[in-house]
Amino acid sequence: MSVGTYSERPGAKPGENDGFSVPWSRPRPKRVVISVRLVSAITILMLLAAWTVSASLQLVSPVFLPSPAAVWAKFVVVARDGFVDATLLQHLVASLGRVFAALIAAIVVGVPVGLAIGVSRIGRGVFDPLLEFLRPIPPLAYLPLIVIWFGIGEPSKILVIAIAMLAPVALSTAAGVRGVSRERIDAARSMGATRSQLIRHVVLPSALPSILTGLRIALGAGWSTLVAAELVAATRGLGFMIQSAAQFLVTDVVVMGILVIAMVAFALEFVIRRIERALVPWAGRE
């Protein structure tokens, strides 16, 4: 018996024989690729279904967990007629203004601080302890001190949110700077690049993916701090609306406000991911 006859499968047609295949082996079934978006959509639908069933069977009192239909009805009413002297759009605009003002402040301060930590030992020695001191402190802990120093106006609200955003931006920038390829720096120096040109044309573009990741983390921290910031003499804002509704046990408005914050945060996350793909398409492919 020759090797060729041994490797042939029973009933195999001429030309189908492969000398490297196991005799009479079965072809492996193709793996089914499951879309991440499909899994996410199914998860959300299952949560909504569980919420609807529990509300319909009154497993939880409507005072504590209103039905999705009640939340949607309240969303329409608040968007049209308003709640606590402002419509939903006015509350949303007020909150977005505070978050974006705080984000700009965190970028203006955090990116240079992160650069200083990443490129200089003196900068690391000066700023790293301060960031590690601020990072674990919850906003409600230093909120009274901010009110004492800066009053109850808009600057104090923006400052509280900016402090919460500062550490993620600065630390992500520092991590991106320290992760710059040594070969790129040496190549730029060999062509006569100065220190400022090295930072502007090599270090910052290489650290941009980490900076954008820091912005995404900072936005999450900013939205979580928003409710605390709007406790200070606010008259508009999503956090103020949620707190006002909670005082009067208007749970459907509370749930509706939480969902609006989640949807806005998701939309901003989507926008930043698109910006990241446009500005740094090479990220993760090197």
Question: Cα distance, first to last residue?
Answer: 52 Å
Form type: flat
Mean pLDDT: 82
Write the CATH architecture name.
Answer: Orthogonal Bundle
Tally the beta strands.
Answer: 0
- Helix and strand succession? HHHHHHHHHHH
What is the number of domains? Answer: 1
CATH superfamily: MetI-like
- DSSP strand content: under 5%
Supply the helix-strand structural class: mainly alpha
How would you summarize what this structure contains?
This protein has 11 helices and no strands. It is mainly α.
What do these coordinates show?
It is a single chain. With 286 residues, the protein is mainly α. The chain has one domain: MetI-like (MetI-like fold). 72% of the residues lie in helices and 0% in strands. The N terminus is likely disordered.
Supply database-style keywords:
single chain; 286 residues; mainly alpha; MetI-like fold; 72% helix; 0% strand; flat; disordered N terminus
